[in-house]
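Weekly sync, protein design subgroup
Attendees: M.S., D.O., the rotation student, P.L. (late)

Item 1: inverse folding check
M.S. brought a backbone from last month's batch and wanted to see whether the design step gives back something sensible before we order anything. D.O. pointed out we never logged the input encoding, so this time it goes straight into the notes. Structure tokens as presented (397 positions):
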């Protein structure tokens, strides 16, 4: 029996799950918050036991990793007796540039590549590397596996990933479209192939990952051929706080009118835009929908723009693949928002999609929401990035 620790380090956070790879059961999960700032806290959730909160200063990720291992082996709140029971660690890593198109066991070369991609993922890659090094120090000899968010997008053809800017910028700096949420798109597309009983060799699948961050991917035979995020996770769909696609001239225009720097405007496009920006209400889709239902016009405009963008991208990807066999919805909104799915699908009747409205009321489990007569299968497939990372890790060690 193999126990795999899955680690997802953000700039000031660390999320973890300990997964039994045989049963795929989560033994414990938790979150360290406010690493490196005041009020650091670990919330540990052992399955079948009460939550355990440790309020303790965490000056860096190394201390956070130590506290996580202490919690996992704690005699009252733990789920294992010795850290030696952890056979491998899988790390979510944001960016591998164009180097890796698959997960890989970490060695010095892998760490160098993660470091070389700091520019491409300035918030995440440094934290990811610190997490890897902290686990190496705490668990010497235990294999560490890096699972990259950009890996799935690496199979995109050149026509899909090139920006139409001077080619030298692609050559010199690697400026191209990479795509993100790759672990989720890869997991959900594979689950969709199994669940909808599609031909794994050549089926055409569109996955709509609709959460706070949102992106769409198109894949043929499980290989990504296009995806909506670009050089950074800002491109594509309208998200909780991110604008998605805009005319780049908007940046210059706001800079001039508001006397702001490019960095400041990019921060606005990342953190103050999306449904938050349009509605002025919230970045959380539940709040925006509640406001819309209470008659808030801007909330209505935000939701409509969000849905419209999803419909447009699906149309574009059907065109890109010259067809589609299945469309899958996943992540917070995709799994739970029955009305958003209804609205998106009502814009796709031209594809011969017929919705099973009863089935579409279900939430949070693998569900076929199209009728047997529907020309395209539509399903809800809950994403599980931690399980996907654990599976990749087990496959490599
Ligand atoms: P991320 O991982 O990118 O932070 P999630 O995939 O957890 O995001 O999705 C979070 C979003 O899902 C939130 O905006 C939340 O409002 C939305 N969401 C969750 N449950 C529901 C629901 N029942 N109805 C509508 N939206 C929901």
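Designed sequence read out in the meeting:
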């Amino acid at each position: 029996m193999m126990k795999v620790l899955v680690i997802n380090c953000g700039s000031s956070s660390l999320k973890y799950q300990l997964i039994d790879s045989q049963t795929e059961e989560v033994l414990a999960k938790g979150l360290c918050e406010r690493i490196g700032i005041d009020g650091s806290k670990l919330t540990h959730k052992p399955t079948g036991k009460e939550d355990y909160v440790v309020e303790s200063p965490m000056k860096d990720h190394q201390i956070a990793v130590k506290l996580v291992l202490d919690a996992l082996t704690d005699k009252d709140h733990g789920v294992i007796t010795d850290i030696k029971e952890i056979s491998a660690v899988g790390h979510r890593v944001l960016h591998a540039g164009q180097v890796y198109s698959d997960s890989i066991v970490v060695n010095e070369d892998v760490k160098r590549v993660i470091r070389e991609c700091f520019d491409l993922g300035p918030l995440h890659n440094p934290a990811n590397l610190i997490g890897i090094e902290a686990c190496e120090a705490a668990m010497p000899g235990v294999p560490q596996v890096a699972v990259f968010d950009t890996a799935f997008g690496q199979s995109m053809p050149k026509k899909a990933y090139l920006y139409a800017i001077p080619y030298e910028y692609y050559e010199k700096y690697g400026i191209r479209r990479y795509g993100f949420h790759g672990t989720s798109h890869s997991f959900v597309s594979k689950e969709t192939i199994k669940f909808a009983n599609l031909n794994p060799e050549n089926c055409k699948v569109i996955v709509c990952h609709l959460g706070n961050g949102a992106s769409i991917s198109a894949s043929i035979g499980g290989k990504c051929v296009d995806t909506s995020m670009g050089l950074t996770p800002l491109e594509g769909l309208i998200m909780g706080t991110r604008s998605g696609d805009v005319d780049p001239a908007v940046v210059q225009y706001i800079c001039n009118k508001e006397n702001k720097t490019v960095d400041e405007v990019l921060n606005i496009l990342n953190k103050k835009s999306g449904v938050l920006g349009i509605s002025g209400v919230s970045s959380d889709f539940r709040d925006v929908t509640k406001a819309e239902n209470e008659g808030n016009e801007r909330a209505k405009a935000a939701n409509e723009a969000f849905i419209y963008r999803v419909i447009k991208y699906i149309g574009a990807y059907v065109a890109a693949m010259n067809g589609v066999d299945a469309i899958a919805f996943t992540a917070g909104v995709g799994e739970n928002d029955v009305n958003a799915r209804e609205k998106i699908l009502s814009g796709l009747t031209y594809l011969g999609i017929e919705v099973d409205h009863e089935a579409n009321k279900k939430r949070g489990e693998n569900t076929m929401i199209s009728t047997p007569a529907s020309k395209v299968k539509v399903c809800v497939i809950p994403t599980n990035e931690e399980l996907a990372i654990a599976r990749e890790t087990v496959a490599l060690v």
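Discussion: The chain has two domains: 3-148, 199-385. The pocket of adenosine-5'-diphosphate is lined by residues 211-213, 240, 284-286, 331-333, 336-337 (CB under 6 Å).
Action: P.L. to compare against the previous round before Friday.
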